[in-house]
Design a protein that fits this description.
Glutaredoxin, five-stranded mixed β-sheet, 8 helices
C-alpha cells in the first residue's frame, strides 16, 4: 500500500510528455532515464518505491524493469538523501590532482562524511568513479553541474556559496576554456582557412569581405 503518494507535477508532466514524444510508437519505455531523473529531482533527490511504481505504470512497463534501472545506475537514490547531491570524483586522474583535499574540505565544510546527508536535509555527499572530465581534474559534480580544476580553497568557496543558497558559476575554476592547456594554446595557433583574410585582388574587386577584426582569432577560438 502506498504511503508516499507520487505523481508528476503539471510542469514535470509536460516535460515527461515531451520526452516520450522523442521515442517511436511502442518504445516509450526507453524514456525511463529522463523520466526517472525528473521524478528524483521532484522528490528531493531520491526515489521512493511509490515513485518507481508510478513510473512503471506511466511507461506501461513491468515494475521490475524500473527497479533494475534505479538500482543499477549510481545517480539514482532509492533511500532518503539530502536534496543537493555533491559527488567527489576519486578515480586516479582526480586523485593525482588533489581529490583527497577536495573531499576533506567537503567533509569539513558540510560536517558530514561520505555517504551521509546533513541534518537539515540539504546536502548529500558521495564519492564517485571517473566522471569523464579527467582533463579538468579534480572534479566536483553538484546536481547537474561540474566544477573543475579545483583545490581546497576553491572547493570551500563553492560549498559555502551553496550553503548560502547560491549557485556558483560551474566549469573550470581557473578560468581556462574547456580543457585547453592551463598556460594557453600550444597547437592550432594559425587561423583556419575559412577565417583567413581574402587575397588582396578579391578585396579590390569587392568579391570578398574583409574580416572586421583584422584577421585576429575570434574570441573563444
Ligand atoms: S578521474 Fe575524475 S573525471 Fe576522470
Amino acid at each position: 500500500m502506498s504511503t508516499v503518494p507520487f505523481a508528476f507535477t503539471p510542469e514535470n508532466e509536460a516535460k515527461a510528455k515531451a520526452y516520450l514524444a522523442r521515442y517511436p510508437e511502442g518504445r516509450q519505455a526507453s524514456a525511463i532515464l529522463p523520466l526517472m531523473t525528473l521524478a528524483q529531482d521532484q522528490h528531493g533527490g531520491w526515489l521512493p518505491k511509490e515513485a518507481l511504481d508510478y513510473l512503471a505504470e506511466y511507461l506501461a512497463t513491468p515494475r521490475i524493469r524500473v527497479y533494475e534501472v534505479a538500482s543499477f545506475y549510481d545517480m539514482f537514490n532509492t533511500k532518503p538523501t539530502g536534496r543537493i547531491q555533491i559527488r567527489v570524483c576519486r578515480t586516479t586522474p582526480c586523485w593525482l590532482c588533489g581529490s583527497d583535499e577536495v573531499l576533506k574540505v567537503c567533509e569539513e565544510t558540510l560536517g558530514i562524511k561520505v555517504g551521509q546527508s546533513t541534518e537539515d536535509g540539504r546536502f548529500y555527499l558521495r564519492e564517485f568513479e571517473c566522471l569523464g572530465a579527467c582533463a579538468n581534474a579534480p572534479i566536483l559534480w553538484v546536481d547537474d553541474e561540474y566544477y573543475e580544476d579545483l583545490d581546497g580553497p576553491k572547493t570551500r568557496a563553492i560549498i559555502e556559496a551553496l550553503q548560502r543558497g547560491e549557485r556558483p558559476k560551474a566549469g573550470s575554476q581557473t578560468g581556462r576554456q574547456a580543457s585547453m592547456p592551463a598556460g594557453g594554446k600550444t597547437t592550432l595557433l594559425e587561423l583556419p582557412p575559412y577565417d583567413q583574410p581574402p587575397p588582396a585582388a578579391a578585396r579590390k574587386s569587392g568579391s570578398g569581405d574583409a574580416p572586421q577584426d583584422g584577421g585576429q582569432p575570434k574570441s573563444g577560438a
